[in-house]
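can u pls check wat happens w/ pyridoxal-5'-phosphate
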Amino acid sequence: MTALPGGRASSAPLLGDDIEPTIFEMSVEGRHSYQLRTTDVPKAPLEELVPNEHLNHDVIALAQVSERDLVGHFTRLSHRQFAVDLGAYPLGSCTMKYNPKFCDAVAADPGLNSVHPGAPAPLVQGWLELLVDLEEKLCEITGMQAATLQPAAGAAGELTGLLLMRAYHEANNDPRRRVLIPDSAHGTNPASVTLGGYEVTTIPSGANGLVDLAALKAALGPDVAGIMLTNPNTVGLFEEEIEDIASAVHDVGGLLYYDGANLNAILGVVRPGDMGFDIVHMNLHKTFATPHGGGGPGAGPVAVSARLAEFLPGPRATRLSDGSYDWVTPARSIGRVHGWHGNAMVLARALAYIDVHGGDGLTRIAQHAVLNANWLRKRLSATLPAAYDYPCMHECVLTASPIKASYGVRALDVAKRLLEEGFHAPTVYFPLIVDEALMFEPTETESLQTLEALASALERIALLCANEPDVVRNAPQSTPVTRVDEARAARHLVTTEDAAGR
Ligand SMILES: Cc1ncc(COP(=O)(O)O)c(C=O)c1O
């Protein structure tokens, strides 16, 4: 038995203590999770079933624990995390909203998840119909003509969109060089532009947090392939001059790319296609069910206007004139951007979400997302003022700079203390154009009571900043992991335990 920190024996299950051994420290030789009934069926020598050269005779070093201890171990660990299922997770820009469980039930349907993606089209007509149905609904929601469901996430959708932009310009014998991006943009935008073979031209935001139209016009020229924008933008504001932006970019032959990561703010209210966008990616894992983050699967379908449809990745599920379905690759396709047909279960979840809510339900989602963010912005105006103090969309960017100036407490400290109040931290220091930014996205799923509790927690923290600033600066102290030195952890990365089990 290994001695554990705190002097416990590894085989003794821990009950709610703050130290949890690893599963290997809990291991006791010979212990197992279940017992099979004794049987009178004679044991067949393994070699008769599997050729010897394919057998691994090494003992595999797996932990040996009872099922009870195993379940207890992982359940305890799961409670040491903050999770969307536990409470509000107002991480701005990331849309960490609670996802309804019926979507998981759909994805768990064996009729959907036991189908091999390589099955011939005549055997999987139901799946193809589902994909066509989803594509049509996403096009209706965005005001676009056709879509690919292949990209695996938002950033993958961005790259796909830029490759489509390039294919379009090259097909017109008009290769261009630059893509414009506002300085408030999400980091994946410039990265995708570079990967797509273009150069980034940064457009400054005005004092109101919106794209500076004069600066945009000054940056335009015949070598501009397009612009990448999200609307609402990353400071949570609606780009009011979007129609002027669209005509200015179209006038020089450029295309408009819509980063749809913020789509839940405008669902069923306004459509990117109607604003003048030519290419739209959606984060299905943010807007339409499926938890976002944690490296799990996502889906970033890309929808386009008619003139770009022939370049879409293929093969695409397509309805034929006789009403049956098949895989069809568009005439001048840029090729595949994902193995098989994308992350199919995320697609199935998204369709379930859209169908259950219906058009009016989707509109209510956008309205509630915007209402919740504005409620929080208003309620906190005396505590953490908004960086741009006028109505926001689905998220609000607040600033801790007055608190920093008065008490030397930073946005990071406030966010860390919030963990001790039972809420996940907001996004901090993004967008980069806001000093001491705290970006809250309450999402449409939180109730008024939760918003009130969140606001009260932040008000308590603000009081603490004035009275006991060190408590906030050193927070969190009551969580399973206390304040860590993140810079040191990154520089001196330790990813294994040493022999003493530390
Ligand atoms: C505005 C914006 N664009 C793009 C992305 C990238 O999406 P993904 O994380 O799915 O790659 C995000 C992610 O949160 C985002 O907020």
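The radius of gyration is 26 Å.
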